[in-house]
Amino acid sequence: MGLFDFFSSPDAKRKEEVRSGAVVPDRSERKRCWDARDSFYQCLDKHNVIDSTKGAGKATADKECAKENKQFGEDCATAWVKYFKQYRVADYQKKQTLERLKKEGANKMAIEAGAEKK
User: Fold this and answer.
1) Domain-embedded: residue 82
2) Prediction pTM value
3) At the top level of its lineage, which domain of life is listed (predicted)?
4) Residue-wise over 36-64: b if at least 16 C-beta within 10 A, else e?
5) How confident is the model at residue 1 (pLDDT cuts 50, 70, 90)?
6) Which helix (H) or strand (E) holds 94?
């Protein structure tokens, strides 16, 4: 008897396999995940929460966005949930740094990627 034998329907089994990372989500499952993520982010934005993983932000998110967070966790692979929560913080920090540099008068530099010249 395996872990997934406890689920009553093939849909529930598939959903758990996606959440655990045992199978790759298909297009509709990815869309459902992104929609759940966006809904969770909207709730966090509404309550001015950037980091929902620790401190006061976690407490507020747990209280005010519990429904959205639960749906996010159900519709996305566990690793994706962790990644998206960390990405939100990193993206905010990047934007804050760029804004600070802009206010300080830093010049924007064009960077080109390509092969090294010899």
Assistant:
1) yes
2) 0.77
3) Eukaryota
4) bbebbbebbeeeebebbeeeebeebbeee
5) very low
6) helix 78-103
